[in-house]
């Protein structure tokens, strides 16, 4: 299969009816939800592009795997299957299951971070940074400047700025590890190159610092390396994934993305002593170290999902379907983040609504308008997601004010996505009369999940 004649390498065996609603029903639903798409009921949503997390369609083999779940409290055979598959495809000898990605982040952060530590990384992710902060650390962004520029077409916007990294290490009291995501979610699903990761490894070695990978979408990162990095055209996604992981000491994983399951995560480690510590903390927070808060059947679905996720035809169809949506939007003149990323198309709300100041939540408003138009649910990734600075209490003002159209894996057809593009195009045509929002309720942690808003009048 070439990139020009790609198609989904599967056929559909079970389907689920989706709700079709009226504009009146959607307006009532959005007002009930305080203009926050996280607070909509999924029965009010027609096409759900909130997230690619836990929303993938499992295969017949994964569903069959549920039936061979071994629900023994200790030593479930499905754990050993998962361990074997992770060793084979990711290469970490120690595998500790967790209920999802943030469970892994919690344990790893508590284990490695001491009060006053600095953790440099290629752009923050909400849960990752929060766990680093709760453990007493401070996250410092060392991603290249291009990552913060939605119009830069740099092929590896997830790259670390090595000079920034060196400076942070020199100035910090202690750096427990460099936090590397492949791909970078908040930059638009943008990859880090193998060459850059190798340099990060060298810098870390020079200072005896660990490199910890957020492997949540590392398979998608591997596809971009194959597509864009000289020397990798002929390698399989699986080979590239293994090479990437080999440059790191540990990883946290949310299996809900790349691994095609609805729940689950794990920690990967090379060091025996750290693995023993992680297993011990797992017992405290997640469950025994052979189930980590998951049922045996979940472990089996992850093990099978990992194998399916590294299939070249699968990854190619996944990435190219996302790209097709992005290209449809570009053809309609809608401003999006380039290059089109791995798991989502990101609308640039600053260019979409240049007349709405960031304090009036342009991306939050845009997500609401898209829902009103077609029942398509998307997610704000801008000032609301960025939260407040813990020191000053002021809003953080991220350069990127985005709306994410996130594509679940193996769930929607191109026709669904064509309908979404048409809807966003209509919202774009009406953009001039649209105003911002005011926040009327703000929770303490990860406010974007539960904050409520009201449209500004006029
Ligand atoms: C996504 C999510 C889920 C999510 C999380 C927080 C706010 C909104 C949505 C989760 C990730 C992720 C990366 C790179 C760790 C996690 C946490 N992403 N790293 O994009 O993207 O994993 O959800 O399994 O706990 O919608 P978890």
What report would you give on this structure?
The protein is of the alpha/beta class and 458 residues long. The chain has a five-stranded mixed beta sheet, with helices on both faces. The model has no long low-confidence stretch (mean pLDDT 97). It is globular and about 60 Å long. It starts with 22 loop residues before the first helix and ends with a strand. The protein has 16 helices and 14 strands. Helix content is 40%, strand content 13%. Bound molecules: ligand P71. Residues 51, 53, 100-102, 125-128, 181, 185, 214, 216, 254, 256, 265 line the site of ligand P71.
Mean pLDDT over all positions: 97
Fraction of helical residues: 25-40%
Describe the largest sheet: 5 strands, mixed
Widest beta sheet: strand line-up: 2-8-7-6-5
Secondary structure tally: strands: 14
Structural Rg: 21 Å
N-to-C SSE string, H for helix and E for strand: HEHHEHEHEHEHEHHEEHHHEHHEEHEHEE
C-alpha geometry = globular
Beta-strand percentage?
Answer: 5-15%
- How many H/I helices? 16
Structural class: alpha/beta
Ions, cofactors and other ligands present here are: ligand P71
Residue windows where pLDDT falls under 50 for at least 5 positions: none
Kindly, what is the distance between the CA atoms of the first and last residues, rounded to a whole number of angstroms?
53 Å
């Amino acid at each position: 299969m070439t990139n020009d004649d790609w198609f989904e390498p599967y056929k559909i065996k079970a389907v689920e009816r989706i709700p079709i609603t009226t504009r009146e029903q959607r307006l009532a639903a959005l007002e009930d939800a305080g203009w926050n798409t996280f607070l909509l009921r999924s029965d009010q949503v027609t096409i759900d592009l909130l997230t690619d997390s836990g929303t993938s369609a499992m295969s017949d083999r994964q569903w069959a795997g549920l039936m061979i779940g071994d629900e023994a409290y200790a030593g479930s055979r499905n754990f050993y299957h998962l361990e074997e598959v992770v060793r084979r495809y990711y290469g970490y000898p120690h595998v500790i299951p967790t209920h999802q990605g943030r469970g892994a982040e919690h344990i790893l952060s508590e284990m490695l971070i001491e009060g006053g530590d600095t953790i440099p990384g290629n752009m923050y992710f909400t849960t990752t940074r929060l766990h680093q902060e709760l453990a007493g650390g401070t996250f410092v962004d060392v991603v290249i400047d291009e990552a913060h520029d939605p119009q830069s077409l740099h092929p590896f916007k997830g790259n670390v700025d090595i000079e920034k990294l060196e400076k942070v290490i020199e100035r910090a009291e202690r750096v427990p590890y460099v936090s590397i995501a492949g791909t970078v979610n908040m930059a638009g699903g943008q990859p880090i190159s193998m060459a850059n990761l190798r340099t990060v490894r060298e810098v870390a070695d020079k200072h005896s610092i660990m490199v910890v990978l957020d492997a949540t979408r590392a398979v998608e990162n591997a596809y971009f390396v194959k597509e864009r990095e000289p020397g990798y055209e002929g390698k399989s996604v699986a080979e590239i994934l293994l090479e990437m992981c080999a440059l790191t000491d540990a990883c946290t994983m949310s299996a809900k993305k790349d691994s095609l399951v609805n729940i689950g995560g794990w920690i990967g480690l090379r060091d025996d002593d750290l693995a023993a510590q992680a297993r011990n903390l797992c017992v405290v927070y997640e469950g025994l170290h052979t189930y980590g808060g998951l049922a045996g059947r979940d472990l089996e679905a992850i093990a099978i999902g990992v194998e399916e996720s590294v299939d070249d035809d699968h990854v190619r169809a996944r990435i190219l379907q996302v790209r097709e949506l992005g290209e449809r939007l570009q053809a309609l003149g809608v401003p999006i983040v380039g290059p089109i990323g791995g798991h989502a198309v990101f609308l640039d709300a600053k260019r979409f609504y240049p007349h709405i100041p960031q304090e009036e939540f342009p991306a939050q408003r845009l997500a609401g308008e898209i829902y009103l138009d077609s029942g398509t649910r998307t997610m704000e990734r801008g000032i609301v997601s960025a939260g407040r600075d813990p020191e000053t209490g002021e809003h953080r003002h991220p350069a990127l004010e985005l709306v994410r159209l996130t594509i679940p894996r193996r769930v929607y057809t191109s026709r669904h996505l064509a309908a979404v593009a048409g809807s966003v195009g209509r919202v774009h045509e009406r953009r001039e009369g649209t105003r911002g929002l005011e926040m009327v309720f703000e929770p303490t942690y990860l406010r974007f999940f539960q904050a409520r808003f009201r449209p500004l009048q006029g």
